[in-house]
């Protein structure tokens, strides 16, 4: 197992490298870099991306028509002093060749130095820590809700395998899995947040404006009132996989010899299920909790946070991409990628810990 862990840890380095390399290369062809954003604000021309007509390329996606500095042209720089453009490049670190900037970025990221946000005078780390509680809150509650739904439903489906209940619930699960979370979130907003029908839940934010003045029981109620719709939207597809995993895990255990022996001894079906099967079947499901949480945390938070106006990491990344705030974009990409890779290794270790029969080394040979 030690050799397997070492191999996985060594793979983290090239995986991170190529993730950052591909995204860095793509950014070079995206029009409307941070300098264009500054020039747009100076000249009062609004959204810089509406004014981009030239081809991409250059430093961090800089492109345009006039005001050339080196090999990069910035639209909107007409009439501005050349030394002013050069100073902007120096401040944003765009005065160096792309290859040099890329490896300098990697060297800083290895030391967890992610720089400061272009749009706010705050380090990327502090910005991530500021937004992380919202995303963790959504991911945690979504994962717990998925488990609370999936485990009882999966157990009942396993006990009634092939029945009418099993068939129609499978249809519901497949339909829920097929619905994108963001589309379901929009539907919830339209139906229950004053879109066109009912005004039951708030449409935005994690707490009410008067939250500080509320008593602590009302603060709890207000908090859950606000997260009800986004958590439901994030849970809709994740519980389907967990339900089927629970059902198949229990079916595998029910068909084993020790279950038949327990039944032959005269134990009740409930005693067999919860005294023997439940303990063994749940090991794999519990071991997968880190992976499920990270999956919900990453895949569900971005669009859901934007739809429900929640100030979390997903919305942070979305707004940073729109504003070409590259330290935030690449810093969060690096942090999330590293977290995902490490949690993948932790999930494998938990599987081996709860079930020593699993051997990843022999599976690879």
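^ Assign residues to that structure.
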């Amino acid at each position: 197992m030690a050799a397997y862990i070492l191999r996985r840890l060594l793979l983290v380095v090239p995986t991170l490298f190529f993730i950052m390399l591909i995204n860095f290369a793509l950014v070079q062809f995206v029009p409307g870099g941070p300098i264009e954003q500054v020039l747009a604000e100076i000249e009062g021309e609004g959204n810089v991306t509406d004014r981009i007509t030239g081809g991409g390329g250059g430093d961090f996606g800089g492109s345009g028509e006039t005001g050339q500095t080196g090999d990069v042209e910035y639209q909107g720089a007409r009439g501005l002093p050349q030394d002013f453009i050069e100073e902007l490049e120096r401040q944003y670190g765009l005065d160096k060749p792309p290859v040099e900037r890329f490896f300098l970025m990697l060297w800083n990221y290895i030391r967890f130095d992610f720089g400061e946000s272009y749009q706010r005078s705050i380090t990327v780390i502090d910005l991530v820590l500021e937004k992380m509680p919202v995303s963790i809150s959504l991911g945690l509650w979504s994962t717990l809700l998925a488990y609370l739904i999936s485990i009882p439903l999966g157990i009942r489906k396993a006990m009634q395998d092939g029945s009418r209940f099993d068939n129609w619930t499978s249809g519901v699960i497949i339909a829920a899995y097929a619905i994108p979370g963001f589309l379901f979130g929009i539907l919830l907003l339209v139906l229950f947040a004053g879109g066109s029908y009912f005004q039951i839940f708030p449409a935005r934010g994690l707490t009410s404006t008067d939250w500080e003045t509320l008593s602590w029981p009302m603060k709890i109620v207000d908090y859950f009132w606000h997260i009800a719709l986004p958590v439901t939207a994030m849970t809709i597809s994740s519980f389907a996989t967990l339900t089927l995993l629970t059902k198949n895990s229990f079916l595998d255990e029910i068909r084993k010899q020790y279950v038949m022996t327990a039944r032959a001894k005269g134990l009740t079906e409930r005693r067999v299920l919860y005294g023997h099967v439940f303990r063994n079947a749940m090991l794999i499901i519990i071991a997968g909790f880190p992976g499920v949480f990270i999956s919900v945390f990453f895949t569900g938070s971005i669009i859901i946070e934007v739809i429900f106006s929640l100030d979390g990491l997903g919305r942070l990344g979305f707004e940073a991409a729109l504003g070409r705030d590259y330290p935030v974009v690449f810093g969060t990409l690096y942090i999330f990628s590293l977290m995902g890779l490490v949690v993948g290794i932790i999930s494998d270790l938990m599987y081996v810990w709860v079930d020593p029969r699993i051997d990843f080394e022999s599976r690879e040979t």
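Confidence is low (pLDDT under 50) at residues 46-71.
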